[in-house]
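Hi L.,

You mentioned the student needs an example of a multi-chain input paired with its predicted structure. This one should do, with 481 residues in total across all chains.
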Amino acid sequence: MADRKIRVLVAKPGLDGHDRGAKVVARALRDAGMEVIYTGLRQTPEMIAESALQEDVDAIGLSVLSGAHMALVPRILELLRSNGQEDVSIFLGGIIPDEDIPKLQAMGVRGIYGPGTLTEQIVKDIRLAVTRAYADSN
Amino acid sequence: MTLSQELLAGSRLALARVITQIENGTEAGRIALDELFPYTGRAHLIGVTGAPGTGKSSLVNQLAIAFRQSEDGEAGRVGIVAVDPSSPFSGGAILGDRVRMRDLAGDSGVFIRSMASRGSVGGLAVATSGVVQALDAAGFEIILIETVGAGQAEVDIARLAHTTLVVEAPGLGDDIQALKAGILEIADILVINKADRPGVESTERALLSMLQLAYPAKQILRDHSSKPGHRWIEAESPPSNPANSSEAELWVTPVVKTIAVEGQGVSELRSTIELHRRFLAMTGEREQRERRRLHAEVDLLLRDTLLKRWMAGISDGQYEQILDLLVRRELSPWRAVQLLIEN
Ligand SMILES: Nc1nc2c(ncn2[C@@H]2O[C@H](COP(=O)(O)OP(=O)(O)O)[C@@H](O)[C@H]2O)c(=O)[nH]1
Ligand SMILES: [Mg+2]
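Structure written out for the whole complex:
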């Protein structure tokens, strides 16, 4: 299917009002030929899961600077599962303490990116994860 | 159950997935559209177009809220299709209209889908029409379709809608941006949003004078009021038997002022849309528009299908040979087509 486009939801959950990083990632994904649904600041897990469903995205990029990732990520994953979207890959950017990384990976987060990550890496990881998910579903 | 059966049974995930298949132009998408078509034709389709930044998404958000709050307790469900341009360089897109629609989160009677314009103009119109059909079949009674700009794509999408709103805002430059490409002719309702901004009066004056130019001469002669606006609006209620009255068959594009960020003017806009909807139903214009639209859609699909089928029977080598002859001026384009067809 030549026309198949990778669709990615970029969301900023939590209360901190700072989405520069999320916007940089959104632009990089667009420049890599993906369709980015940008939802803006202060998204609740419910809003994120609802948007992911309506937009039928392949992946979700979350930017969390507030330190609330250990509460937000499991809730989002749970909602995705109950909506039948367990095949959607989750990527997380922000300031994530080292000890949380293995826990988040165990929950199913596909990529975790700290400050200074090259956007090329994120693009590559998303493309790989989505291509694999396509292959599994066909 | 097939995907379309799940959609008809009310699954939002199935609806989302059918839309993806339609957008991607897959066989599964075509099958779904075949199965869903008998369930379409019930929704009222509202196009919302205008230059970037005029407040279309904010207005769509407010209109959706207004349509969801029906006094008689029978609020219809609202579907939204928000189209943004794809990057011509990468083919990717940033679709940001949801940012302005966060008030609608948590309402299961609303479904928002962002769409990138992707390839061709005709292709976008066909894909949008398909997406709208999916929402229609899923039981969304009001469907708002937001598009940017003033190009052919907007004219095509206006043809798809029953009621087209053209959104303007003061302070976007003296000459009115979105009106250049004849977009005025597609407006059933003109909205001046950002009415809190300075320059509303001059924008309104400019629009009114352009509207008078845009009308066919007989309509200008009939319009004795200094201000365009439908007579039904001035009379507060429609004439008792408009079908018999030639006067009533005329829709004079009204101008409605709104402040989308505060929700001001939105209920008037909603009433004006309802009025236009009744106008379409009572004058038979709705069926005519529907017929024209289906005609255009089948035309486009037919052309596309015939061309593809034809091209499949011609080898690249053959085509190249003919191109060589054309470049050397040994063959005219018309003769080339004849040669290709007779082959
Ligand atoms: N002052 C004022 N700003 C508005 C109004 N409506 C929208 N805006 C702002 O205009 C900007 C663009 O709005 P948006 O709905 O995204 O416009 P679109 O590009 O046409 O969809 C946003 O910052 C809105 O908050 C309004 O009525 N008054
Ligand atoms: Mg918009």
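You could point out the following to them. Chain B has a mean pLDDT of 85. The longest strand of chain B covers residues 44-50.

Best wishes,
N.
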